């Protein structure tokens, strides 16, 4: 009988976020594959877990995957953990998952913390549609190119970033994406957890003048102007939109102003169209 590969999420800062199921799983597997055995040993010691630890990181991922495949074929179970958070989210484990699937072993997710998800829900930015892009490239030219690729995505953008690059990344984001609403979330679930909210320009200035430390998640709002225009195209007429705003309590002047903005028109253009539609 083939063994089972468990992908076990661990806390991203606060040890109390470890789930009962995660502890139980790690206590019962034959082997725990981890990025840094010294780091994971602190976790296993805290929870009284005695399973053998084996290093599994980006530099030995391919060879380890083959080894783990043979262990699974012997019917033994393996848990994969990252230093923090959920395995495979910007962390190694893809190769061993592929190998497990290839040999027909069972692959089970033991859910828990994911940094960008927790940062997103406290950011105050829309969560209905989300794009996660991992770490932005370290070089400005490559970073700008990547931002151009995601510029038109109609979703909240989420990225990981490092303290020494965040100010430059924010500047590039402003230049490529425009001055969108954003949030910089650092040290989520940890003692010095902090959420900085504002426009990309404001955040660039603030962090350039007062550098920050810790693990960082960057949350960027979608292009509101584009979204408004897209929504407006789905509406029949300027007159109908003005009537909708008026029904919400806006006076005619402000209702027309808001409708003009949604349709990407000047107020005078919107007024002329509104008059022709009313006729």
From TrEMBL:
<keyword id="KW-0489">Methyltransferase</keyword>
<dbReference type="GO" id="GO:0032259">
    <property type="term" value="P:methylation"/>
</dbReference>
<dbReference type="GO" id="GO:0008168">
    <property type="term" value="F:methyltransferase activity"/>
</dbReference>
<dbReference type="InterPro" id="IPR008189">
    <property type="entry name" value="rRNA_ssu_MeTfrase_I"/>
</dbReference>
<dbReference type="InterPro" id="IPR000878">
    <property type="entry name" value="4pyrrol_Mease"/>
</dbReference>
<protein>
    <submittedName>
        <fullName>16S rRNA (Cytidine(1402)-2-O)-methyltransferase</fullName>
    </submittedName>
</protein>
<keyword id="KW-0949">S-adenosyl-L-methionine</keyword>
<keyword id="KW-0808">Transferase</keyword>
<dbReference type="Pfam" id="PF00590">
    <property type="entry name" value="TP_methylase"/>
</dbReference>
<dbReference type="InterPro" id="IPR014777">
    <property type="entry name" value="4pyrrole_Mease_sub1"/>
</dbReference>
<dbReference type="GO" id="GO:0006364">
    <property type="term" value="P:rRNA processing"/>
</dbReference>
<keyword id="KW-0698">rRNA processing</keyword>
<dbReference type="InterPro" id="IPR014776">
    <property type="entry name" value="4pyrrole_Mease_sub2"/>
</dbReference>
<feature type="domain" description="Tetrapyrrole methylase">
    <location>
        <begin position="4"/>
        <end position="203"/>
    </location>
</feature>
<keyword id="KW-0963">Cytoplasm</keyword>
<dbReference type="InterPro" id="IPR035996">
    <property type="entry name" value="4pyrrol_Methylase_sf"/>
</dbReference>
């Amino acid at each position: 009988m083939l063994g089972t590969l468990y992908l076990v999420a661990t806390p991203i800062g606060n040890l109390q976020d470890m789930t009962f199921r995660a502890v139980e799983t790690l206590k019962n597997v034959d082997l725990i594959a981890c990025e840094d055995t010294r780091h994971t040993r602190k976790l296993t010691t805290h929870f009284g877990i005695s399973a053998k630890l084996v290093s599994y990181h980006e530099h030995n991922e391919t060879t380890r995957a083959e080894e783990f495949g043979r262990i699974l074929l012997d019917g033994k179970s393996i848990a994969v953990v990252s230093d923090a958070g959920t395995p495979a989210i910007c962390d190694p484990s893809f190769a061993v998952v592929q190998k497990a699937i290839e040999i027909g072993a069972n692959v089970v997710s033991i859910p828990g913390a994911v940094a960008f998800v927790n940062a997103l829900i406290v950011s105050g930015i829309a969560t209905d549609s989300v794009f996660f892009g991992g770490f932005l490239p370290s070089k400005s030219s490559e970073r700008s190119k990547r931002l151009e690729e995601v510029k038109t995505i109609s979703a909240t953008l989420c990225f990981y970033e490092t303290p020494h690059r965040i100010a430059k990344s924010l500047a590039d984001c402003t230049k490529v994406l425009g001055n969108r609403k954003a949030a910089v979330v650092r040290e989520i679930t940890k003692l010095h957890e902090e959420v900085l909210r504002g426009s990309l320009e404001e955040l660039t200035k603030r962090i350039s003048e007062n550098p920050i430390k810790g693990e960082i998640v960057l949350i960027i709002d979608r292009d509101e102007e584009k979204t408004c225009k897209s929504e407006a195209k789905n509406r029949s007429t300027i007159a109908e939109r003005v009537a909708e705003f008026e029904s919400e309590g806006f006076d005619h002047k402000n209702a027309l102003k808001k409708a003009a903005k949604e349709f990407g028109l000047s107020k005078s253009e919107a007024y002329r169209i509104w008059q022709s539609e009313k006729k």
